[in-house]
Predict the structure.
Amino acid sequence: MSEANSKLAVPEDVTVDKATIKMLHLAQSKGIETIFDRAVKMKQCNIGTEGICCKVCSQGPCRLPLTKGIKDGSEPDTRIGLCGATPETIVARNLIRAMAAGCASHSDHGRSVAETFLAMARREAHDYTIKDEIKLREVAGFFDVPVTEEKDGVQVPRDKWAIAVEVGETALGQWGQQQGEMIYLKRAPQATQDRWAKQGVKPRGIDREVVEIMHRTHMGVDQDYKNLLKQGARCSLGNGWGGSMMATDLQDIMFGTPYPNTGRINLGVLDKNKINIIVHGHDPLVSEMIVCAVNLPEMQEYARSKGAHGYVVAGMCCTANEILVRHGMPIAGDYLQQELAVVTGAVEAMVVDVQCVMENLANVSSCYHTKFITTMPIAKCASGKNTIHVNFEEHAALEKAKEIIKIAADNFPNRGEVNIPTDTNRMVVGFSTEAIKYHLGGTFRGSFVPLNDNIINGRIRGVVGVVGCNNARMEHDEVHLALIKELIKNDVIVLTTGCSAMACGKAGLLTPESAAVYAGPGLAEVCETVGIPPVLHMGSCLDNSRILTAATEVVKAGGLGKELADLPAAGAAPGWMSEKAIGIGQYFVTSGVYVMLGVSLPINGSPIVKKHLEVDMEELYGGKWDYEPDPVLAAQKILAHIDLKRKALGIDKARERVLMDMADRQKIEAA
Amino acid sequence: MSKLVAFAAIQGGYNIVQKAEGIYAQALEKYGPDQKLEFPNTAYYLPLIYSLLGLPVKTLADAKKPLEVCRKLLPPHVKSLNYLPYLGPLLDAGMAAILAEEIVEAIRYVESPDFYLVSEEVDLEKGKIWLGAAEDTVFRKRGVQFVDGSAPGFVAIVGAAPSPEAAKELALEYQRRSIYVFMCANQGGTTFSQQLVDAGVEIGWNTRLVPFGPDISAAVFALGFANRAAMAFGGVKPGDYKKMLLYNKDRIFAFINALGEVNAEWAANAAGCVNWGFPTLADTDIPEILPTGVCTYEHVVANVPIEEMVQRSVEVRGLKTTVVNIDIPVAYGPAFEGERIRKNDMFVEFGGGSKTPTVEWVTSANMNEVEDGKVELYGPDIDTVKEGGSMPLAIKVEVAGRKFQEDFEPILERQIHHLLNYAQGLMHTGQRDIGMLRISKEAKEKAFTLKHLGVILHAKLHQDFGAVFDKLQVKIYTDEKQAEKIREEARNVYVVRDARVENMTDEGTETYYSCTLCQSFAPNHVCVVSPERTGLCGAYNWMDCKASYEINPTGPNQPIEKGETLDPLLGVYKGANEFINKASRQAVNNVCFYSLVNDPMTTCGCCECIAAVLPTCNGLMTVNRDYTGETPSGMKFSTLAGTMGGGNQAPGFVGHSKYNIIQRKFLLGDGGLKRLVWMPKALKEELRSRLEQRGQEIGIPDLIDRIADETVGVTEEEIMPFLTEKKHPALEMEGIFG
């Protein structure tokens, strides 16, 4: 290997995805640097990864690395910062600040959805509408918004717009609520709610808990790591059972609740004869409109006038998941593939909204004709010569979408060399909680009972949500795939979202046929019965809230305990990288779920905090954090956890067939 | 493999719905939208559509909406690669097929009114073997057996067995287990029903082998029966499809046997049945659906050899059945109870038309006088008479035991009727000294002798009542003189016995009994039986309940200390109320034993009669289950039962037994028997002598003749002049609503 090349990533070593390998070679041959290469060049800060650098005041930063001697006990741990802050205080403060940032990100996305929703309900944003009225009425029920009204002495269904206005107002009120407890918490199983009440972690309002973290982590305020981490737990619930869950619900009402649908994934979805528009980020408000607008005859005509055969609107990151699960729009790639999409030379416009948009995307775009279009006033970019900002306004959403499409179309003739890899894979996606319920029994018998039944009888050993990001410090996709394959081989059904879902899609795990290939015999049989893949794509990372509602349905369907913590279930984020993931992980832990990470939290600087997260939290919330970088070992730890839960439920042994006689039937409780 | 089922069933769903749409369009053109659609003599409209969708279909025009629902339910076809999930869609397609078939069958009643015989029995001579939808009288009568457990479930047999003999064997095996066999569809024109006829098996409701129809669409009659039961007895509200289907899954133990090649339309029906929790077992190699969830256990099981079909079926459905093994040469079980033995099939007759003396008598004896299991015959056996001959018959059952009480004698005695009837080849009617027994030629050929009567009684009475006695022996007399002597002795006992029971009063009794036998079906319903208010089903009086409690202290009949009498006229008892509140799971907290105006007792839907207020006449009416005509309440029995079944309190209506009419406390709180202004003629005649006696007691000897019946009228307006003319006492009484 030459000196120059030693600074570059070896494509075959950093990813298992064929399209990514090809495009990395191409990028490197053209001298275009990507995150894969930078990950080789740039080392991580050891002190930062341990979470032990305090920079909350200008007397620091104070760095208190854990020495070898402290670790092996040969020297006492006397580390303190200038103010006396212990490693525990520093690590806990840093961690919950990251949590606050993660929760704020998802919840702020939720806020913009709620605002648009309310504008839609008030008929001020005419390009949006109510697509799922059934869900609107269901959500209204959670908010105690009446769905019927009295007319001439009889109860009649209330006007959907009136309901929507009240739902929108109530939802939006949740962000600024100062007292009491957030409304959606009551959707959790009662025993889970009771636990939260006992631990004092029921959030009052979304913003309040975030702000309180910022205050409490200021210099010289809260200096008790347990108290700090408790606030992190409280804040996380405001996101999981608040901002995120409401965002998912309101998006479903406006854009449709996902039901199983087919889709395609990977860079091969780009089309050299069409205008390729990539929508990237997380918030579907923009992309939904672009999807609508490209189908308008005037837009199609516009494409032809530029010599193109139409448009490909392909998604990237979670914006991709949003339009995939609702409309079957193709996915170009995941977080780590964003620069490589541009390297195809076929992307006319890279349209981004919020979160996980690498700044270098602007630089790579500058090497091609690609327009890098930012759309959100809160997410602009100063890099890149091809960067433009089209401010998206909900009141003129469709017009703005058309403007963006025209920019892309006008850019089509400017294309240079095009190199689109042929790789794509088919998949079946869109397993919302509602869809799972329907598909387990149809219109008349839809329920989670068949799932529970097959968990109880052991065909399915457990349920694991494998979610989260891709991380350039690990082998791209492989960490997800190795873990998931090990789980499904052992009859664990996997629920997936975000970039993890994309890894599965690219590897073919989201096809129903994959059950026979990868799943254990019990899981394969259930998959065959229902016609589902062994890995269910539930949406974007925001949609992790769907996993909470699905798990709640499982508890309510009966036979598997009283609280979420009783379920033979777990969560895993093998390749997490963003602060959002910390926020998500904590809301799962606080809800009672065992969460396995493949990348350590920045906590190793304080073994005491680490123990609190990985051991003590189970006592408090029923769930806990764990870390295991080897995906197969991680899967085995998860399986061990599931088996413990099965044993506690008494379903670790084969179930006997019960034959009922009349006396048995008389004992059935009235339904 | 499930994918193949899904593929076929969804295809079948499309075929069926499309055909139904065609038939509907033609019918609409031919008969117009106002053409009435119904299953004759049934309540609940088209019961599947009504129960699941809440839509009452009365005319062709009404059928349009459910047909649109069917079309909408049809899912996309299953693709070969990267297919979407199909379990939910598969069940929807099945449901669409079944709902569409119900419309097709309803139109058939218009198109070919003679296609189905509206009857409980088939008419072999006229070649009419298809019975279609069970009339309400049949449904109520049979439904009760599902309620009280004498019928543990039903199998829907679809298609045909490999041979008539195989069909006979399979049917017999289900009969032995008391399981109803509902038959539909054909295999290349051959039907299971016809196979049974060809094998000489009696089919019809009586033998629990019910030939619904020759097409797969007749499956709707079986499912309709189940859903009607859920509405009538379970109190499930029309349109509450979720509760309806779960009720069926948990309480109605039905399943399907698909015999022979399974086509797409059968697959659609099988898929539809999964919605009910009813699994399918096939004798052919079809794709299986084994994982559990929608049904209790497996959904579709294939390759079941026909000789293992019954065993596998009850296992897959999760049903426990018992086969009674008695050492007699014929089959034995409740399914044979309704079997008829016609003159031509009869070998010998006792009593009845032959007028030979008969009597049945159960009496107590000292322990040392009884040798358990001994059966003695005094006189000749049946082989001494010619075919078609007759003989006298006296059956004296002697019972001994420390726990045996004289009060139990009549209870055991009343069992003789059905216990003998359960034997294949025996037909018994009546009781005491008016009994009639026939033994068939077939039974005789199988070497059935009179001693076997004793064997049956000994075995079954021990099985059912063994807790209250230790030893039992049977003496059978066919010698005329001896038989007559026994009859005389028995008659003397009957007089004493009747007087004792009739003199029991509610006031003089501190302990009443609950009856929650029906809670398998009607989970909120609870009967309280007192000496002067027998169970509303007519099957349980106070003495029965007492005995039942002694036999099974944790069973459905529990003693209730009636406690303080809160209102003697209405019959309100503190202890009874407390019990009812608990046993009804807080659904009911006050019950008046003797009133229908105020907090009447609930009914599960299996009451023999229903009484209702007739406000204009200031009186009450009552109607029994067997009367299918209109009544002055504006409702037929079936409609009345439909409005008040399922354990609900329905002021203005109450269910009661026939016998209760002539009990002294009959609706006393509302004025008693004097209030009764209308009852069906047949019921009046049935109770005539007792009604006359009761008339005497209350000082209106001709009361019976002042009560109107359907020959007078079936509306209040029609009967009013009659009541006025006859000076019916109700007209003079204070207002019925107090």
Observations:
- Residues 76 and 656 of chain A are 57 Å apart (CA to CA).
- Chain A is about 50% helix and 10% strand.
